[in-house]
Amino acid sequence: MSTDVKTPLAFRRYPSTTALQCFETAARHLSFTNAAQEMHMTQSAISKQVAQLEEMLNLSLFYRTPHRISLTPAGKTYYLEVLEILRHIEAATTSLMSNSDNSEVLKIVSHPTFCSRWLMPALNGFGRAHPLINLNIKELAGPFFSEDQNVDVAFLYGDGIWGGMESIKLFDEYNVAVCHPDYLAGKAPCTSNIAQCTLLQLSSRPSAWYEYFRQQDIRIEGTFVGPRFDTFHTSISAALLGYGIALVPLRLVAPELQSGSLVRAWSYAAKGRGAYYIAYPLSLGNSHKVKVIVEWISTYLQHSNDPKQDIECVR
Predict the structure, then answer these.
(1) I need a surface site. Which of 50, 55, 72, 120 has the fewest CB within 10 A?
(2) What is the number of H-type helices and E-type strands within the chain?
(3) Ranges of the chain with pLDDT below 70
(4) Is this prediction's pTM over 0.70?
(5) Tens digit of pLDDT for each residue in 206-254?
(6) Are 200 and 244 in contact (CB under 8 A)?
(7) SS3 category, 174
(8) Where are the beta strands (DSSP E) in 180-213?
(9) What are the distances in angstroms from CA 258 to CA 118, 183, 251?
(10) Using an 8 Å Cβ cutoff, are 170 and 297 in contact?
(11) What angle do CA 103, 108, 236 make, to 5 degrees?
(12) Which run of H or of E encompasses 62?
């Protein structure tokens, strides 16, 4: 996000952080006494800070009775805003204190399941090899990347085209049907009797099962019916517990397939409509830390066994 630091802020009258902390603590406890104990201040000092804040805002933040306090509607709204502000201050301060003057922070975003199951193994050893680059990894489930956001690198699934970004293809996606080893015992193959199998659904890909069978020229009713989950992670967990059959990217269940805790329900692997990419803003094309992470991921792909898994699954 670009910010013109030369532009003055229009409003210069702000409450002190002490006043905001006193208000937040009192609002959380609904007690000036308890707030005073937590803040290591006197009750009168807490009350005075809050009163000065109310005077500056020209609003009452608390209803006061002889025995208790409660938030006014304005106080409830302000409490949520102040809480978020204080969290941002805490995060920014902690981040600054945790990094040395000559280190860089590499801000990464990724889909949750992809992050835990593929990205984390891929980044194993990165910190030892690059001690001056500190990783800040955030998991987000939905569309989450644009050049306006404060992100250096994103691991995305799609067509590789995102405005204002350079993207490098990592690999195609092949989806496989997996289940607990005991799940299909005594059941007829799903293609002959769909009623005997529970197809676990992913909310973000409602037509995944339909596409899986369509690629095989198989027509089956009921491909949209079944328990629905938000992430591949929960879908995989449900399959491990025997809830049904999950349709998930092969790379994300490689450990379970290798250990035998999950098995392929059917041998076919459906090629996904998109692929996985590493992407970064065009403005960061010459950034040292971005070049380092791109090279690291490229080297990992060259030396990993992942491509063999995909090749084998489509033979």
Answers:
(1) 55
(2) 12, 10
(3) 1-12, 95-103, 141-149, 187-195, 222, 305-315
(4) no
(5) 888 888 888 888 887 767 788 898 889 999 999 999 999 999 999 999 9
(6) yes
(7) strand
(8) 199-202
(9) 15, 18, 11
(10) yes
(11) 140
(12) strand 62-64
